[in-house]
C-alpha cells in the first residue's frame, strides 16, 4: 500500500527539514513525498533539492503563481501515484517513526477516508503547550460528529480515487481552502473508518503561521464558504441524508470560528506590539 504525502511550501526554510525528516525516518517505506513550492522567496527550494539528491522518494513541483495551499494540493493530487493521500502543512511533522506503520491495519478494509488523531503544539516564546486530539466513540458511529469536530483535511487519510471519481478539487487563491472540499469528500465517501492513532503534529507558531495573521477580512471569506456549502446542498452535490448535519456544522462553525479569528487577530497585534 503506497502513500502519497503532499506538502505545500511557502517560505518555510526554518521548518521544512523537520517535516521531511519526520517522514524519511518512518519504518514504513512505501511512500512518496510530493512537495509543491508556492513561489517561495527564501531557500526552501534549495533545501528540498539537497534532500532530493539523497532521497528518491521526493519530487518537487512549482505553482505558476502564489495561489495558496489549495493550488499546491491540486498539483500534488494530479501527480500522486499512491493509493492513499496524506496532506501536511510545511511546518507540521508526523507524530513518530511508527506512524505510517500503525495506520496500515486500519486501511486493510480499503476505506474511502480514515480519520486519525493529531497533536497541536502552541509555540509562545520559550513555552510550548501540547494537546492531543483523539477521535471518540461517537465519531466511530455518527457522520455528524466527524463533520463537527474536525475542520482540516490533514486529520484524514484519503483514498485517491475519492477525488478522481467525484471530480473533487480544492479551491485556489483563497483561505479556508479545505472547508468545502472536506465536506464534499466525506459526503461522497461510502466507508469512513476512525482510529486513535496520532497522525501528525500541528504547529501553531506565533508570528509565523498564516493562522495567527488573519484579519477581519477572513471572516467574510469564511461566511462565503459556509454559504457555498448550502449552495452545494441545493445543487444536489451533498447527499440528502447528510443535509441536516451540514446545518449542525454551520451552527457550530460560525460562532466558534468567528471567536477564534478575533482572538488570533488580537493575539497577533499584541505580539507585534512587544516586538517593537
Brief rundown of the structure:
The protein is α/β, with parallel strands linked by helices. It has helices at 16-24, 44-54, 68-79, 99-107, 137-141, 143-149, 160-165, 179-188, 217-234, 243-275, and strands at residues 3-9, 31-37, 58-62, 84-87, 93-94, 113-124, 127-133, 156-159, 192-205. The chain has one domain (3-205): Spore Coat Polysaccharide Biosynthesis Protein SpsA, Chain A (Alpha-Beta Complex), CATH 3.90.550.10.
What does this structure look like?
The chain is an alpha/beta fold and 276 residues long. It has a single domain (3-205), classed as Spore Coat Polysaccharide Biosynthesis Protein SpsA, Chain A (Alpha-Beta Complex), CATH 3.90.550.10. Helices cover 43% and strands 22% of the residues. The protein has helices spanning 16-24, 44-54, 68-79, 99-107, 137-141, 143-149, 160-165, 179-188, 217-234, 243-275, and strands at 3-9, 31-37, 58-62, 84-87, 93-94, 113-124, 127-133, 156-159, 192-205. Strands 1, 2, 3, 4, 5, 6, 7, 8 and 9 form a 9-stranded mixed β-sheet that branches. β6 (113-124) and β7 (127-133) form a beta hairpin. α6 (143-149) packs parallel to α10 and α9 (217-234) runs antiparallel to α10. The radius of gyration is 18 Å and the shape is globular. The model is unreliable at 208-214 (pLDDT under 50).
Amino acid at each position: 500500500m503506497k502513500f502519497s504525502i503532499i506538502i505545500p511550501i511557502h517560505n518555510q526554510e526554518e521548518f521544512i527539514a523537520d517535516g521531511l525528516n519526520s517522514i524519511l525516518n518512518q519504518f514504513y517505506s512505501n511512500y512518496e513525498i510530493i512537495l509543491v513550492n508556492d513561489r517561495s522567496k527564501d531557500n526552501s527550494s534549495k533545501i528540498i533539492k539537497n534532500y532530493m539528491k539523497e532521497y528518491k522518494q521526493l519530487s518537487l513541483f512549482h505553482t505558476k503563481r502564489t495561489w495558496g495551499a489549495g493550488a499546491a494540493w491540486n498539483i500534488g493530487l494530479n501527480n500522486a501515484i499512491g493509493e492513499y493521500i496524506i496532506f501536511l502543512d510545511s511546518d507540521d511533522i508526523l507524530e513518530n517513526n511508527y506512524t505510517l506503520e500503525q495506520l496500515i491495519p486500519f486501511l486493510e478494509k480499503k476505506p474511502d477516508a480514515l480519520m486519525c488523531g493529531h497533536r497541536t503544539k502552541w509555540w509562545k516564546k520559550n513555552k510550548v503547550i501540547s494537546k492531543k486530539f483523539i477521535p471518540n466513540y461517537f465519531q466511530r458511529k455518527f457522520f455528524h460528529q466527524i463533520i463537527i469536530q474536525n475542520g482540516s483535511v490533514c486529520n484524514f487519510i484519503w483514498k485517491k480515487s475519492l477525488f478522481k471519481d467525484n471530480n473533487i478539487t480544492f479551491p485556489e487563491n483563497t483561505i479556508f481552502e479545505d472547508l468545502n472540499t472536506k465536506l464534499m469528500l466525506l459526503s461522497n465517501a461510502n466507508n469512513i473508518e476512525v482510529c486513535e492513532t496520532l497522525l501528525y503534529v500541528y504547529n501553531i507558531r506565533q508570528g509565523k503561521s498564516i493562522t495567527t495573521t488573519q484579519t477581519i477580512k477572513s471572516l467574510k471569506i469564511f461566511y462565503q464558504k459556509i454559504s457555498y456549502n448550502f449552495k452545494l446542498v441545493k445543487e444536489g452535490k451533498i447527499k440528502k441524508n447528510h443535509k441536516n448535519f451540514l446545518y449542525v456544522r454551520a451552527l457550530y462553525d460560525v460562532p466558534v470560528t468567528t471567536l477564534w479569528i478575533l482572538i488570533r487577530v488580537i493575539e497577533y497585534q499584541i505580539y507585534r506590539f512587544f516586538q517593537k
